[in-house]
Amino acid sequence: MNRTILSALLSHWWRNRMQLFTLLAGLALATALWSGVQAINSEARASYDAAAQTLGEGQYDQIRRSDGGLIADATYIDLRRAGLRVSPVIEDRLNGVRLVGVDPLTAPGGIGPVDVTNDDFNAFLTGRGQVYGTAAALADVGEIDADKVISPDVAPGTLLTDIAVAQRLLDRADGFDRLIVVPGQTLLQPALADIAPDLTRQGAQGADNDLAQLTDSFHLNLTAFGLLSFAVGIFIVNGAIGLAFEQRRPVVRTLRALGVPLDRLLWMTALELCVFALVAGGIGVAMGYGIASLLLPDVAATLRGLYGAQVAGTLSIRPLWWLSSLAIALGGTALAAGAAFWRLYHMPLLAAGQQRALAMAAGRSARWQAWSALVLLTVAAALVAAVAVAGLEQGLVAGFAMLACLLIGAALALPYLLDRVLTLGQAMARGVLPQWFWADTRQQLPGLSLALMALLLAMSANIGVSTMVSSFRQTFVDFLDQRLAAELYVTAEDAAQAQALQTFTATRTRAILPIQSAEITLADTPVSLLGARDDTTYRENWAFLASSPAPWDAIAAGEAIAINEQLWRRTALDIGQEVAIKGRTFAIAAVYSDYGNPLGQAIMTEPAFQGLFPEVTALSFGLRLPAEDVPDLVAEMEQALGLPEGATIDQSGIKAFSLGVFDRTFTVTTALNILTLAVAGFAILMSLLTLATMRLPQLAPVWAMGLTRAGLGRLELVRALLLATLTAVVALPLGLALAWVLLSVVNVAAFGWKLPMFLYPLDYARLGLFALIAAALAALWPAIRLARTPPADLLKVFSNER
Amino acid sequence: MNAKVFVLCLLWPIAASAQGFAGLGTDADGFAVPQPDPQFDFPADHAAHPDYRIEWWYLTANLTGPDGTPYGLQWTLFRSALAPQAGEGWTAPQLWMGHAAVTTPDDHYVTERLARGGIGQAGATEDEAWIDNWRLAGDWTGAMTLQADAEDFAYRLDMEATGPLVFQGEGGYSVKSAAGQASYYYSQPFLEVAGEVMIAGDTIPVTGSAWIDREWSSQPLAEDQTGWDWFSLSFDTGDKMMGFLLRQTDGTAYTSATWITAEGKTTPYPDGAFTAEPLTQSETAGATVPTRWQVRLPDRGVDVTVGAINADAWMTTSVPYWEGPVTVTGTHEGQGYLEMTGYE
């Protein structure tokens, strides 16, 4: 019996191949975008884990010298012989790649992620020695006097080896950079201060910021996009399944009349959908892998530029990733098919299958949809009002909740809105053809509503995100002009060269602005403290978000500091409050914007800084001089001081670099945007094709009354353009609302800075044009097919009329 | 798990294949080989011999607490060479491993330390053997001190030698198989101990006796030997006995024993004179091992039952084995230590 049921069910797909294609393609696309984003996220997370494991960062306490110097061999031995279980680490750059040397006998966890087998260990410790790393890192380091061993679990951009080998390769036998503390306290262990008072112990969460936390917001962004794309895809799937179920009603009726139990039928249908879901999911996963591979290098560069996080630039297939993608494909199908199953279960035995059943059902649910839309939009409006008017702080999750409510609410409201507009159009129409046109469009609406919802989501996401990105870029460019006021930036190699540099340029430049920094903690947050020389450069160029009167004077007097927006927003610090730094108190005089920096920052005047941190010498300087004199000065400095070529960079170079990082960051978002729009266009095409076959009985009478097939085809195109335009009109305010939420809530919660919103009417017009073109292209094929329908088919309608 | 695997092979370096327990049966290529009729020079020979592949300083003690509870205590320092030279600094091809344990009738505490040679973290000189803050120091015929610690136990002991150093085998040349593998082997079995043991949050004053074994060689096991069972027994009469059984792949065993009088006079016994027969098997944390033995040395009228005080004295270290205190009953009464290696 099962075979009969299955063949009856599957025969529907055989006859309606377009529907099957729609179903599979929709699900595959949805899964592809989702799994692509997930692949990127999980690759990044694996890299963070590898980094933590490789270097013990975030896992074990570390011991360093209070003054930042190297820990001598003898000190290490003294600590061990006293009973403190510590393990030395050497860390440096070899040919541009980070090389870490550990002692596997004393390090907790041995050599971390590296799997050293029997024969390797001898080679690891003796002879030439071995260096472990990813293939990319080993390639980057070039020729070295050690055996290279590919080990994919080592953190990207890092090489791991034994201390003795590291000492030899780096030509450094002068001490260790830090010591790792083996967790656990032995009974006869003395206090660290008793053995080596110049060493300090830092907790595992201390100096090294938790990478996973920092980059969370970035990954959340990606996930949100993945979800959006998935939702759009599921709309398509919903449409296809709903239609198929409706059209199979006669089959179901016959089977049940023949004695097939209902639950057997339901199981078979479920099984059929499961198989489709797995097949489409598999295709989607493969496509997702392709998308992720293409996007990953840009994501890696972004993360490195923004957070200094090292992420592998190549993708490795992890079982968790594709298993979860298949699961989501199954889940999405289940979600999409839920309503259809419910209807099937409650269908009376002899219910007639109706061609227009979809439309009828849509009419009933339209009310329900409209009400839910109203509820969601109200919730969204309330949240927005709370933030905008009452100024309540909202977290990241609340921001995304707002976005979700707005998007889903608007999507659900769209069919109702369109229906009202079309009714209005119909009422205002004069003449038979226009009236019929409006009525026919209205009648087609339920079948197209899902596709139009998808288009709405895609367009508004496009508007919202592009507004945000463009506003950001504009503000960022202004900000760069402000902050990078110096014409030339120089970095010296050591203190002696820095001193020579200052003497040399003293007469040749208008001002020398040293750049020096130290790490402190303010209000329980790690903060970079900068020392700035008092100069008109700052007073003229910097704009504060908030300040007390005459802030620069207070700062120059050494009584106050300025903090960046991120620190201001994230902590309770505010103008006028006092903070203590190394025993001295400073008032907070101003808040400045600091785009692109995920951490807190504060600025104080140079004399005060040097008083607190005398051991810190500035190695980087900004030089003020006329722009046309820069190349000469660079040449002179390279000759007189022996500065290497990379030590200087001029203003335009550094601006271009910063903007480059910025643009890279949003390449990923732009790419995802375009893909989502493409998915929506595909949805429209599929809906139109599917509906085309059912439209003949409605079009035949009109044709019989004299409207040519070509005319009918043209009207199809007009209809598609009309609906797309109406959707675009709804998409614009929705997109702007999205942009506002992104700028004012999500960005503030995620990064800590708020951007002003700028409008770009040209961009919107261009997007609208693209949407229209997409809709026109999508409608072109069905229109041509309609125009080419053989007259005999249209005539047959009259003889088969129900 | 990585640590276990590579430390296993690091201590007993393997050229092409591992032979015998912990690779101790591997060829002695390049390393010095013990010769018969050794001439020892003390205190110089208490220090390390880097041209030999494997060496240890092995202390076991039978102690009693104030309430009569018996405690067994172990302190071992191993040296293993990857190449026959001392080396300097971080590239020295010498690796050191320390094991410490305390055994009570109910509990067994074990810990391990690892260190590389050449940097000073571990080593052995004439009057001190150490790894991290674990130390065995002093005059081997006079006063010595002992210390070790871990997260859950620690001990500090003062020891006094009441007899001379004794030499195992033929004047300190101890043969291990019919093929002739041998090691240099001497002991200090006459140590009176007083000190404290810290376990389970308590500090327990203990007294008793200790026995230190010193041994070094480059291929202590033949290719066909899988492991050994070693007994050090101190009888109430004041005499002592050391005996070991080297188990071979064909099921037979090579045995050797030394009888030590209370004055320190030794008599070696060749293969076959000493026998040990397992009586009871016990399942321990690591493997199933015999924890009661019938030990016989007919030439001295010894026919005793040796039983473990705590059957579960399995050493959960990188190279695992069984080591624990035992009681002796039968023709002679006394106490001692038992070590069993090569059981899976």
Structural commentary:
Chain A is an alpha+beta fold and 802 residues long. In chain A, 63% of the residues lie in helices and 12% in strands. In chain A, strand 4, helix 5 and strand 5 form a beta-alpha-beta unit. In chain A, helix 11 packs antiparallel against helix 12 (319-346). With 344 residues, chain B is mainly β. Chain B has 1 helix and 23 strands. In chain B, strands 1, 2, 3, 4, 5, 6, 7, 8, 9, 10, 11, 12 and 13 form a 13-stranded antiparallel β-sheet that branches. In chain B, strands 14, 15, 16, 17, 18, 19, 20, 21, 22 and 23 form a 10-stranded antiparallel β-sheet that branches. The longest helix of chain B has 10 residues, at 2-11. The A-B interface holds A 73, 77, 80-83, 85, 103-106, 109-111, 114-122, 124-126, 163-164, 167-168, 173, 184-189 and B 2-3, 5-10, 13-14, 18, 82-83, 89-91, 93, 95, 114-116, 119-121, 130, 132-133, 147, 149-154, 156, 198.
